[in-house]
Amino acid sequence: MRTDWLIRRIGLAVATWLVALFISYILFEYAPVNPINYILSQLGMLGGSGGAGGSGPALMSRGNYEYITQWASAFMIHGNPALGFLKYLVNTFRGDWGWSVVYGLPVLTLIARYLPWTLFIVVSANIASFLVGVYLGQYMAYHRGSTGDQAVTQFITVKRSIPVYIYAALLVYFLGFEYHVFPTHGAYSGTPGFNLPFITSVLYHAALPIFTLAFSSFGHWALSMRGNIISILGEDYVNYAETRGLPSSWIQRRYVGRNALLPLYTGIIIALGTSFGGAVFVETVFSYPGVGALFSSSLGNGDWALGMGILLILILAVILGMVIADLTYSLIDPRVRQG
Amino acid sequence: MMEVSYGRVEGVIRGIVSVLARIWSNKAARFGLLTLIFYILMATVGPLILPYKPVIASSVNVFQPPRLWPPIYWFGTDNVGEPLLVDIVNGAPFVLEVSLLTALYTTVLGLLVGIVAGFSGGYVDAALSFISQVLMTIPSLLLVMIMATMIHTNNPLILSGILSITGWTGLALSVRSQILSMRELPYIEVSRVLGLSGGYILFKEITPKIMPYVWINFILNMEGAVYASVGLYFLGLLPFQNYNWGALISEALGYGAYYGGRALPILIVPVVFVTLYMVALIELAYGIDEVINPRLRK
């Protein structure tokens, strides 16, 4: 029963990955704007506006244009789509994710350089927002109906509806440009090394991005925790524990808190996936050298191999996270261990 | 025959009025509804009164601070000397069109997929559920960003199509599970035994039950579309429009780095307009939820 379920989950993960690769292949192969056109438009060789789907050669003679297209076609794999996709799959598994036309480097090299920064801010932001949300939700549930609870609920409702890039824009404008409290770009100052000044400068640079991401997402945890606790409070075993005269702090932690946390566990991975979307905005606004900022700049430059590579790596991160969450769920919930 | 159809129309109107009255009685929903009406007026009438005509760039008129008179200068001027109020008003139709269209597309698609999956079962159901699950796993915002940048259009009809690629999955899955659970309910079985057609059961028995959820989902998808479309302009990934709200915010950041406080209105005013619109949508959704959901009723 249990192994069946696990096999299905892993099968779904693999299938999701294949679908993601297929979408990326289709987009990449049949993109209306290909990297060759981008390079040509940068060199002023295509007419039209701003590189996007140039209408034809402006500064070049017909012969030269054909020569360039021929030369460029060496880079494109057009032909049998099924065969092309197979080739794409094999290349992806061999670690050949293509080259970035803007940086002139392999996509995986670039991702390896930028990904740690993104993981750093996204993971810390999610931990922070989870802790804040859980404690806030606990407070709200035990004071439900009070002015405090209503005020926090209303605050979260409004806060959640505001996009993360608006928080980022306001913070970078006021704390960065106006009052110079926090840095407006980069991940550190000085030379990297394992010493105190470097670590503090990393934390100093990451403070606003982490805060922005955490602030924009803690409301979800608070509201779910509040709802879970309220529904558990009516359970028989909680009433029984109260009748036995157990201290209420003990009941809150051991009886209610643990069970209220369980449903949130698998939500963490989904939240991680959403945070990657938010990280694109936050890193771009704070000029933070993570894959999010790299993603938006690669899209702006028509550097599809790089953009697609980042999308694929983030999808892979979410899929792996889901599988890990499924595998470890039995560790925290004894009820699913036998079955 | 005439009388029957007349009675039906009257009944529909009475139903709509009673729903509106219930929505009106809820404070959050009333706030959302009024704000939404204000935005719709701004997007429809606004551009007729204050058409966008790029002025000849003059260094005298740029970054003017807000002043009280004439009213067109209430928000000051932007980087090319155009009054910011004109920018805001002309940026409104795009935001409203994209959000409405995206919500429409996702709702229709989600309903269709959910109903087909729920009723047909078997392989169709499995395939549709698989697609929904896959699309829910993929960080949809990033996929949408790539596609929108590739297609690179200002056209709300096309852009909304791109933005709704992943938004329909939640609705489809919940409609499907609703139908699956309702199929076994006694009164649906009775209708089936009575020989009523599948269409009758769908529209008369099942649709009224899922409509509240569909409406809330519609509004939430409107909000998601604003988030994505303004965000795309904010990142500069769509064809540039000087009066787009997202483009204005991102420009203000660029100017803020150089000019400091003079660019402040260009940041604050679009931020307030985007925020107010999204808060209004959310309040409306929660308000409707409170009105319809008996568990939340006070």
Topology:
The complex is a heterodimer of chains A (339) and B (298).
Chain A: H1 2-29, H2 35-42, H3 62-73, H4 81-93, H5 107-142, H6 147-161, H7 164-178, H8 196-233, H9 236-243, H10 248-285, H11 291-300, H12 304-332
Helix pairs in contact in A: 1-12, 5-8, 5-10, 5-12, 6-8, 7-8, 7-10, 8-10, 9-10, 10-11, 10-12, 11-12
Chain B: H1 2-25, H2 27-44, H3 46-49, H4 84-120, H5 122-137, H6 140-151, H7 156-163, H8 169-183, H9 186-193, H10 198-234, H11 245-259, H12 264-292
Helix pairs in contact in B: 2-4, 2-12, 4-5, 4-7, 4-8, 4-10, 5-8, 8-10, 10-11, 10-12, 11-12
Listing every helix as H and every strand as E from the N terminus to the C terminus, the arrangement of chain A reads: HHHHHHHHHHHH
Outline of chain A: globular
Estimate the helix proportion of chain A, in percent. Answer: over 70%
Distance between the termini of chain A: 7 Å
Overview of this structure, please?
The complex is a heterodimer of chains A (339) and B (298). Chain A has helices spanning 2-29, 35-42, 62-73, 81-93, 107-142, 147-161, 164-178, 196-233, 236-243, 248-285, 291-300, 304-332. Chain A has 339 residues and is mostly helical. The longest helix of chain A is centred in the middle third of the chain and has 38 residues, at 196-233. The N and C termini of chain A lie close together (7 Å). Chain B is mostly helical. Helix content of chain B is 75%, strand content 0%. Chain B is built from twelve helices and no strands. In chain B, helix 4 packs antiparallel against helix 5 (122-137), helix 4 packs antiparallel against helix 10 and helix 10 (198-234) runs parallel beside helix 11 (245-259). The longest helix of chain B is centred in the middle third of the chain and has 37 residues, at 84-120. Chain B is elongated and about 80 Å long. Chain B starts with a helix and ends in a 6-residue tail after the last helix. Chains A and B meet through helix 1, helix 6, helix 7, helix 10 and helix 11 of A and helix 5, helix 6, helix 10, helix 11 and helix 12 of B.
